[in-house]
Amino acid sequence: MRDFKSKTLVMVLLILAGFLLAYFFVFANYKNLNIVKAELTRVEQEKENLENSQRQMESFLEKYRSLDKEARQVNLALPTAPGVALLLGEMEQLAKLSGILVSSINFSELPQSDLEKVPPNSVVPIEAQLSISGSYFSFRDFLNRLENHIRILDPQLISIGVEEDNLNYEYEVKFKTYYQK
Question: Which residues contact residue 46 at a Cβ distance below 8 angstroms, ignoring those fewer than 6 apart?
Fold first, then answer.
């Protein structure tokens, strides 16, 4: 009987020791488990935030790339350089299409000292004076073409005079155009 009691006592002590060991290991690791779960939740949230940011960036880039065509048109309307030679050719072409004779074209840009004071990404004006002659209807057509031209051209002053033969008029047109610095 004694043998049975001692075996029972040993069994109870072993079971109790097993529970104690399990309790200490599980309890100690349970705290770590909660810490790891919290870290896992934080990392998953961060991953989700990064994926959302990536989707937003891809959407932004897609919109930006789709605006490339519009940006090219804006650069035609407001070029990144003065482009006076190109503008001269365009004015002559507009006059030719309207049946207008060009007497002179003068451009005046800002002096270099003033241009250096202009902050970057600003709009810089170029003043132009155009002397032309032709009929009234040709001049109206010229102004219409000037208005519909892709580059921004703002007429400032228009003077009209009569030529000696009274068939054509002389016109002085002062206008401004612009470019991006």
Answer: none
